[in-house]
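Here is one chain, start to finish.
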Amino acid sequence: MWDTTAEEEDNDDFNITSQFQYNDDDDVEEEESDYNLSSQFQSNEELVSSEDMIPHTSNPWLRKPLWALEDWHHNDDNNNDDRHQKDHNENGIEMTSSPLVHETKEQQEEQINEVHHTPQEIQATSTTLPRHLTLLDLISIGVGGTIGSGIFVLCGLVAKKYAGPSTCLSWTMAGGAAFLSGCCYAELSGRIPHAGSSYVYAFVSMGELPAFLTGSCLVLEFLVSGSAVARSWGDKVVEWLTVELHADKEWVYAYLQPGYGINPMAFLVSCSTTLLLLGGVKESKMITDIFTWIKVALVLLMAIGGLLLLDTNNLQPFMPPELNGWNGIMRGATTSFFGYLGYDGICCVAGEAINPTVNLPKAVMYTLIIVTALYVVAALALTGMQNYTEISVESGFPEAFASRGVMWAAQLTAAGEVITLPIVVLISGVLQPRLQYALARDGLLPHMFCEVTPAGNLRKGTIVAGTIMTFIATFVPFEYLDDFVSAGVLVAFSITNSSLVIMRRESPENTPFYLEKLLLLFNGLSFLSAVVSVHGPRNIVGKFLAFCFIVATAAVGFWISWSCPSSAVFGGKSITMGNHKRDNGNQQYFQTPFVPLIPCLGTFINWFLIAQLDFLGIFLLLCYFSLATMFYFHYGAKNSFGNNIGWDYPGDLGLSEDNEEGNDHVPSATCIANKYTIT
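Its structure:
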């Protein structure tokens, strides 16, 4: 039976624990073990009968409660590690993660063993990543991971094919669109400072399966995209050696481009970054900071040099009629947006950020400001140096400087791209193990991925991620994978935007999941509107159909704002389950304005960009999701920590002021997953 009592301690804190007492014909003696899986559940309700217990089955829509995330209920970030270690020493595990109800202790232990959480593994899992990343480190990761081919290739491409001298307007519009999703990342990262980025946001707001699919999208952004950059760097090294340094082409092609799709230089840069990451956290952080700001200095040199060489005649006409004026600018903005992908990597290392509530939102916003400013000024400088009809798509800045007779600047910019591009590969190598770490802590990947060395390094996860990245970079051509990767990243952006709406808004009373259904409808209509607008017939019927879809999408967005009220606390009552102290305390958080308008606008733009991609890339993404879903049900659902063990409500979460005055608040247990659920 359940034995439930109410107890108040120190008038400041309340403990919510659970204890199952198993009654048999004989008395049950207390047993001591290496780890204690018993807990106590306090309530003001009477005893719960056996009819109130229903068997629990694996639930792919299970949401992870906010307090189950490390550091969520600790306001003092400087004391987090000590408090976690204290919890581990006293309880045997960092967060008491036991089932609410089990028939015997032997069955409890069997339940643990089935999901590979032995006492030794729980002890290893409780070792958290140290918080060592300053605001400057976070900005370095964001800027270094974002500025890549966008500044060196996309500027020339947009200027030549779409916008001409008005390319700076395309980058400005793309930056504004990036800020829509960036605001959502900024708020969620500060509110949920946990490793995993969009994966953990989806887990808290949508459920385990959506979170796993979101994590699969992030694998494309971190691991696969890093492999693509490594391969691109290998090709640029060959071009730089043969064109700029006039090396012997026969020798270069024989050793650096042997054929059969093999890229030796991609192998070199991938292996080197992996070895650097294995060498230590401090070393890789220092290299990231140094090379990121070298890259920024290079871009500033390109921009300032271009402005000094600017010829106003090259900017006339500012909107060439042959490029369709504003339509060309909009098409250029669509292409330019892909140059902003990567800033969300800041959120993936949120678990290692110092003072994350303040520094993470600042890092996201500062990164977008820095990147947008560099892109806009560089675009203006490029189109001012050289007429847009003569700009090189592959080597825009080197060719532009050469056309003005400044050969040293041309050679420096060509060499600078080769020198600084590997930092993107390094940052990808940093982010992918952190994503694996978050998945493994929830049981969705093997446990070895969340093992942390005493030095704070994810050694095993780094080795696996580095090996896979090296293999893909060395042997897999990317001609057909670019759109596939871009589509996956944009889906993750849309899921993050929707996650913020769920955390800030609530379904109307007596209408559960109404908000979630409306968001699903909004995302579907957004995609259909984009497909019809981009690929539909250009006659009056096609335009009318696109207009109808857009109006329907806007109507759903406004209905969400009208019918779904704002949550009293972040996440809503059903998700937070008593995080009043964190919301009602003195801690200040970054808040995205005009929710749900801004997240919905960002979501619509993301789906519009996906519709611009080749259908082959979208088809590959659907196939990829199918494989990820199969893996989830074959492995993840069977080993899921939440679905098989569950989370106990932490005992050190304090009452709000209202509760201290006597308004009792006892969180429900409906979000706790285990063998039995109390309703």
